[in-house]
Each structure stands twice: as C-alpha cells, then as structure tokens.
Amino acid sequence: MDLSTILQVLDSTVRLATPLLLACLAGLFSERAGIFDIGLEGKMLAAAFLSAAVAYTSGSAWVGLGAGIFASLLLSGIHGLASITFRGNQLISGVAINFLAAGLTVVVAQSWFGQGGRTPQLAGSARFEPITLPFADALREVPVLGPIYYELISGHTALVYIALLFVPLTWWVLYRTRFGLRLRAVGENPAAVDTAGISVVWLRYMAVLICGVLCGIAGAYLATALQASFVKDMSAGRGYIALAALIFAKWRPWYALYACLLFGFLQAFALRPDVIQTVFGFKVNAQLLDVLPYILTVIILAGFVGKAVPPRAGGQPYVKER
Amino acid sequence: MTTAPAIELKGISKSFGPVHANKDISIRVMPGTIHGIIGENGAGKSTLMSILYGFYKADAGEIFISGQKTAIPDSQAAIAAGIGMVFQHFKLVENFTVLENVVLGAEDSGLLRPSLARARRELKALADEYELNVDPDAVVEDIGVGMQQRVEILKALYRRADILILDEPTGVLTPAEADHLFRILENLKREGKTIILITHKLREIMDATDTVSVMRRGEMTATVKTSETSPQKLAELMVGRKVLLQVEKAPAQVGKVILDVKNLNVTDEKGVHRVKEVNFNVRAGEILGIAGVSGNGQSELLEVLGGYEKGTGTITVNGQTIDLTGAKSDGRSRRERGIAHVPEDRQREGLIMDYHAWENVAFGYHHDPKYQRGMFMDNAAIKADTLEKMERFDVRPPDPRLAAKSFSGGNQQKIVLAREIERNPDLLLIGQPTRGVDIGAIEFIHQQIVALRDQGKAILLVSVELEEILALSDRIAVMFDGRIMGERLPQDTNEQELGMMMAGMNKGEAA
Q1: What are the backbone angles phi and psi of residue B359, rounded to the nearest 5°?
Q2: Which residue of A has its CA nearest to B46?
Q3: Topology of domain A3-122+146-301, per CATH?
C-alpha cells in the first residue's frame, strides 16, 4: 500500500469525521449543561434539508448554511421548551424531534421540488467548494510532507476547518471562561448554580441554542459540502454515532475529536474494500464494513470502554426545592 | 441610641396550597449575635429561611435589613443584601475544586483566571482570620463533609455576607467537627457578623446561641434570651406539652446470644472495603447501639444483615448460620429467620412513597397466608390489619388508603416500625430510628424499642445521634472506617470519649 492510498483514506476520514465532530460538540454543550439530546440526528437532518433547499434557491452555500442553522435552532427551541420550561422528559422530546424531522423534510421537499423527497443537485456557489491552502500547489512536490499537506490538510471545504477550530474553542469556553464554569456547574448540580444567584433556565437555554447552531452547521455540511443535495434520511444515524463518540470521549472536547476521527476512519475504511484486500489479502463483504461504526457504537454504549460518568444532573429537569 | 436589627421580619406568611407553612411571623435578629431558631420538622423554619434567601416569595409581610426595607425576590437579591446561606444539603458542585465552587456565581469578569487568582488570595486571608482552612485545589468530592461545610461558609464570606444562615449544620459532623464549627461561628460573631442557626438539637441552642426563637406549626411561639431558658422549657415550647427528654428503662434482663457476627467483611460494588473484620454479638433482651459518623460502614453492616448486600465472614442467628452470598442472602430469607429490619433511609428503603399505607404494610410479608385468598391478595384483610397496626402505633391519620408520602416523617417511621415489630422478630435491626422525626414521635418510638427489648428480643441500633445511642443502648460499639473501635457500657463512658472513638482515636486501647 502506497502513501497516496493511505492519504486518500485519511483524507476521507477527515471529511467523514467532520459532521460527527460538529454534532458531538453540539451534544457536548447540551449535555454538559444537563440536557440530554438524542435529537442531534433530527436537527442535523432538518438543517441538511433546509440548507440544501435554500442554497439551491438562493444560489449561495453560505445563505444555505444560515437557513440550516435556523432550522436546527427551531428544533432546539422546541427541545428547550419541552425539557427546560415544561420540565418534560428529555428522551421523549428528542425522539419526537427525530421523527418530526425525518417526516417533515421529505414531505416539504416533495411539495417544494417534486423530485421524490429530495432537493435538486447543487452546483457552483450553491455548494461549499474545497479550499486550497496557501502554497499547497508549490509544496506538492516536496517528498512525503508535500503530499500530506496537499492531500490531507489542504483541499477541504471551509466547514471542515470551522469544525476543527471548534475543538480548541469549545475547550477554551468550557475551561477558561465564566460561562463555561457555570455551564459545567449547571450540568452537575443546578441547585448550586441557583443558590449562587444565577439563572439555571437561562444557562440551559444558551447551551441548547449553541447545540442547535453546531447541529445546523453539521447538517448543512452533509447536504452542501459532503454531498451536493438533500436526500431522504441522509444523516444516516450520525447523530447517534456522535452521541456514542461523546460518551467515548467522556464529555471532553479534545477526546471528542479523537473519538470522531476514529468513527470517521471506520466509515472511510468501509468505502475502500479494495484497501483491505491489498493489505490483508482477503475480500471483505462491503456491507460488513459499513456496519463497523455501528458495532463500535454498540460496544461503547454497552460500557466496554471504561466507565464514563455523565454529568450528574443530566436528563433531570431542575425543580427548585428548599 | 438603639442599633437597628440586622434582620427584621414583619408579618411573614406563606402557604403551600392548604398548608399554612408560616403564619404571621415577626422576628428581630440583632447584629453581632448568634440567633437560634428551633422547632420540630415541618414547623416552618426552613420555609422562613428560604423566604429570607429569596427561594420562596412570601404571600405577605416585609423584610428589613439593617433597618432598610428590602425586597428579596431571588437569591441574587439576598446575596446583594449581604445574606449567605449554608444549606443542610450542601449546594456544591462535587467534581469542581474548592476554588471553582467559591468563585461560581461571583466571578469578576468573563475570563476565569483573574477571578480564580483573586479568590485564592482571599481564601488565604479568610482561612487565617477564621480558622477556615481548606485546600483551594482539592476536589470537593474528595474532602470530608466538615471541609465541605467550610467551603459553603467560605462561599458566603467571599460574597461579603454579613448575615449567615446555617440550616441544621451539625447533622453530618463528628462532635469534634461540630466544636470546630462553633469556634468558627464565635470568630465570625466577634467580627460583627450576624448568625442564624437553625437546629432541632436543644444542646446546640443552649451552648452556642445568644437568643433563641421557637417555632411550632408555622407560628413563632417565643423568642427568649438563651441564658434565661432551659432545655425543658424549650422542648415544651416546641411540642406544646411536657416532653420526657430521658428514656425510662429498667435494667436489661440479658439472655442467650441471638446474633453473633464473626470476621465480617464487606466490599461494595466500587471495590471500597466498607466493613473490616467486624466481630460482635447481641443477646436477647439487650440493645446494642452502634455509634459512628455516617459513612463509616454502619449502613453496609445493616445492609448485609438485612440481606441486600453481600459480605464474607460468619453470621449466626439463634445458632444457625445465615447465607451471606448465595441464594438465601435476601430479605425474605432473613425475615424467615426472625430478623426484622427498619432501614436507615425509610423513604428509599423502608417505604414506597407513592403507594398506600396498606400496601406498604404488606411489603415483605405479602406471602403471609393471612393476606392471601386463593391465588389473589386479600386486600380487605391487609387494610383491616393495617388499620389495627396504625391504631396500636398511633399513626396519624390512621387511614390505610393514604399514600406513604402524605404522612409526616414520624408517622412514616411508625408505619415501618409497626410492620416490622408486629411480626414478633427475634432480632430487630433498626437504623436511624428518629432521623427527621418530631420530638413527640421520638419519645414514642424510643418507648417501642425499649418495650421490645423488655420482651426479650435482641436489638441492633445504628444511629449517628450520640444522645440517642447513650439513652437507649445497653452496650455501645463505635464504628470508624469500617472497624469496631471498641465497646463501652453507657454508664462507664461519655460523649467526649465516644466522640474521640468516632474520630478514630481510642484512648483506652491505644496505650
């Protein structure tokens, strides 16, 4: 196996890890504040649809991104209303959002475009194009480092770099700012936050809205960068995989990056059965490879990967008591 | 000229639905004093303080802080008015450091570093001034409850509180820790801070306070100078009638050994060794009291004996070995051996709060043929039986159809006691019999325990209340860090010695 094959696999690892990473960080903000969010999937899907539809109509991928974030925020608002204001069951609210998104996207797409529940193909500026980083072409001929820079680091869409920047940003916000301290506190012991004179409701809404923005970017990435249109159920369980990655990462931002890269790698691997054949010398059923990330998800969720302690107040509505 | 009171409440009323928690309460707390508020559970002390701290909004009444009329709609306003509160259940973020907990909500700016640096300097100054030493970088869940309480006090002082409210502060402390706390409070008082101490322990009121207010059923029944009153008078004011503070009991008529525990070890699911090589026995007709600060293995000891925790070692009841790990290590097998268990946490282990009293009385004994009719439960028989038990144990109201949660703490405990004692066990395990129970009910429960002893039953009593242990026990064993530190006879020991043993020091045997 040569360097260029390895680079190709790693390059698609990065591309496939990006939506997972965005969704994972989205879940991190929400769950660190004590709001479990199984609705990452639905928010991504809604964002994917609306971003593709608006990008096609407006001709601008960036306008599409804005629309995607708007769609996701709307669902986040519903989740916040249900679980914070009305103190409902967070799992049920999340599941409802997933169903809502799965059904609505197809129905609206059908009545809007009449193409069987999908959006038309995006082209040109309606889609995020790969960015060539400075000197990538010039350095391409340098041995080893040149191809790594050109193939792996350069040549992604803007959203990939944005997603990667969100990792240190999330870490900084969580551990170096007042907001982060309060956010982490409200997910552990909301009573401590309340008695300190800070609004639990406001903090949790902020967390849920940040979650909405990140899911919106993730969804827009799926439809306007990774693919070039919205198709039915295109989020394909990524929201759930992101949740598994979040548990794997024990709710910490840098570990979330590593976990998502691992899942991205498995997905990238599944696209290249030929690589397996050259490396291991036998043919593997492609469907079996497709299943790998999901099997890993099950293993993680079953608790085989060490003990993960979730934020202590996670999933519980805050009721003031003496 | 007279100084204005630090706090003056005028005509505070608060209702929760039909329950009148506070009725027209007025109180003046003078600056630089320690003011005690005493009353039974449910008397409305906590409600009153929650109103003062902005947790609840009063239906009527006014609050004056240093003579100024002040509205306290939320905790933020209370903090701004210089009020700090140390809750009975600490409001700390357990996996944060001490420093982070102190800073939370009182940060200087959007970035954390400068706030943390300033807090570190101030904590050092506060530690020197008031004997409030805490490692600022320790994680809260790793430090003891005494330390955690200091963190709560530091939080209040860091927010420039002049008035400090402490709600039942000594419930979780060893006697030595409690003494340290009262020294801290004295220091704070000397610096001119005002302290409100809420407690149900008469002794603390007598030792620590300058003035005391008594609450009963939502009303403030009296405010007196502590030096001009006595525990008996206060107890009478709290309950509204004369109360026996001493348990009256005849000398024990001790029989054969009923419970014999040898080399008992318990390791919990986290791998922590909770009970270490414990040996003791309990004989017929005596009460063995196990003293200790909570979390030193007493709970696990009760759980193993009750059949819902596994352990190693040998336990015999009436000479027969009981199963500690296998198929017979469950509650039903224990009951069949004549063991009855009144668990420490009645709301989690003793009752199902949402179920009716009669259902709760049947639990554990539901296979009793008396409760069966063919293949069905005979609910009418259970209800009739429950009603009888409720009347014998003076449960109020004696209505088997009420949910367990609608009874007061004392009446809940009486339901559990009735269920267990009426089964005529050879051995009664009883944990924290009077935790959260009113003085009147405490008297009744103590009498029941002594009566059972006088019938020749063996009783193992676990309590964190040293006074209770001393009053009831015929022998006292002290547990510390999973071990039995030693046994004493109540007439040969005192609170000081037991307190030392509870803190892991054993004068008698160390030499």
Answers
A1: -65, -40
A2: A322
A3: ABC transporter involved in vitamin B12 uptake, BtuC (1.10.3470)
